[in-house]
Design a protein that fits this description.
By secondary structure, this protein is mainly alpha-helical. It has a single domain, classed as ABC transporter involved in vitamin B12 uptake, BtuC. The protein contains 14 helices and no strands.
């Protein structure tokens, strides 16, 4: 009997290994397809706009730039906008996926930790008190405000015996957001000039940005992305519950703190660079789970690729839907993201963590 069981176990193990290999191959194929889609949308972002250009012209502008050629100048002017769309989309989706894992809340987004509210209040304060008028100036105020708000939320949620539980994080974030938005409203009501300047940033978008806006945010985005991408196994453990995570050797408080740091760096930088863009960090992780399941080792890379594709696609549509004007990408992502999110919820897939 024992001699018969040995071959049977080996056969089953071989079948499981084969199934696992096929699943990995399928995931890699889907990921490569997503990269191709993102590349095509990046090329379209350089070509499509109020002044439409051919892909041949785009290629010539990138490889044989002629400063006297107006079309080439247009292509180079669109490069920072396209790069920013890729960076912001990737940052928001990584942060959103990590938030949902840390908070074990499928509806978590930058608002749950007060990031958007902190960034918005800081920008309003910079405009009102210091007369900041440029996007490069907004970056630092928004980043400081987002980081400070997230730290306060985590410290408040950490009080008590159980530490920063998912419920306490959500409640602390909601309470702080309400308070910060109230303070912001007081300032905006008392200053029409501040309101006029703030509205441009508050809508959320990637138009009108140049390298002077993009480059200061790169170090924060890079560090935040490295932290979150390195926490995939940690997020898998936290998704099983704090007790099981501790049983697997995780220091839950420390790992939540490290992950929260990455979230703050990504959300703060993205919000500072492009304003509060909604639905990207909420919808994409849900959609990705329908392809990958609950494994964050796949959720994070897929989110990193698909979210920029969504943001660039929304930005491209916004450029041409109301010519000669533009609809900001923040509005387009809401128009695209809201129906998709409702559809995902009705399907009942991808919402589980």
């Amino acid at each position: 009997m024992g001699s018969q069981r040995g071959p049977q176990v080996s056969v089953r193990a071989g079948r499981l290994a084969s199934a696992g290999g096929k699943a990995r191959t399928r995931q890699v194929a889907w990921l490569l397809a997503a990269v191709v889609v993102l590349s095509l949308l990046a090329a379209a972002s350089l070509a499509i706009g109020a002044r439409g250009l051919s892909l041949t012209t785009v290629w010539q502008a990138l490889t044989q730039f002629d400063a006297a050629n107006g079309d080439h100048a247009v292509v180079h002017a669109r490069i920072p906008r396209t790069v920013l769309g890729i960076l912001v989309g990737g940052a928001l989706s990584l942060a959103g996926a990590a938030m949902q894992g840390v908070a074990r809340n499928p509806l978590a987004d930058p608002g749950i930790m007060g990031v958007n509210a902190g960034a918005a209040l800081a920008v309003v304060t910079g405009i009102y008190l210091f007369g900041v008028t440029s996007l490069s100036g907004y970056i630092w105020f928004a980043f400081i405000g987002a980081g400070a708000a997230a730290v306060v939320v985590y410290l408040v949620a950490s009080m008590g015996r159980d530490g920063a539980t998912p419920v306490k994080l959500a409640l602390a974030g909601a309470a702080l957001s309400a308070g910060l938005y109230s303070l912001m409203s007081v300032i905006l009501v008392s200053s029409q000039d501040t309101l006029d300047r703030f509205r441009f940033w508050q809508v959320g978008g990637i138009s009108g940005r140049d390298w002077a806006v993009v480059l200061p945010g790169l170090p924060f985005l890079a560090v935040g992305a490295l932290i979150i991408l390195g926490t995939s196994r940690i997020l898998n453990s936290l998704a099983l519950g704090d007790d099981i995570a501790r049983g697997l050797g995780q220091r839950v408080g420390l790992t939540r703190g490290v992950t929260a740091l990455g979230i703050v760096l990504l959300c703060g930088s993205a919000t500072a660079l492009a304003g509060p863009i909604g639905f990207v960090g909420l919808v994409i992780p849900h959609a990705v789970r329908s392809l990958t399941g609950p494994d964050y080792r796949w959720i994070l890379p897929f989110s990193l690729v698909l979210a920029p594709a969504l943001l660039l696609g929304a930005d491209i549509i916004g450029r041409v839907v109301l010519l000669p004007g533009e609809v900001p990408a923040g509005i387009m992502t809401a128009l695209v993201g809201a129906p998709v999110f409702v559809w995902l919820i009705r399907r009942g897939k991808g919402a589980g963590l």
